[in-house]
Amino acid sequence: MDTNDTIQFLKEREERLGGRIRYRTYCTWYARLGCEKREYGVFLYTDGRTMAYEDFDREPQILGIPIKRKSKEKYEKLLVSFPVEAIAAIDRVTLDSAERSFESCRDVARSAGIFAKAFRKLATKVTLADGTIMYFEMMDHKDFVNRIKEFQEGK
Known about the structure:
155 residues, alpha+beta, four-stranded antiparallel beta sheet, 11 strands, globular
């Protein structure tokens, strides 16, 4: 059940999008090839026309206990959006290969096979028409794919 803070947060995101949020999920890991990576995840959401994702300033924790850092990096808010129609391909890849792709600044991720899908951590690879590649570790890959198909078909 959504709390009042959550409801307010979602209303603000709907105002930014210009429409009701029709799909949302939290991704526990994210990387955009040649750009940025977030180890602690991003909030991914859409109104069916525009896909948006953002991160939040968060202190590192172990078992819910904040860890003090000697030197804190300056936090820069990540807020990216693009048209849902710009999504050219969605694939399932291993999280290891997504990490390697990010580190090498080139896409070396390949579709996950049956064995990898059963025994390895996976990421969703999203390729845009302009060649931008993003990787998301999300809870329900199939639901994401189905919803994007619906939105692209105008449903």
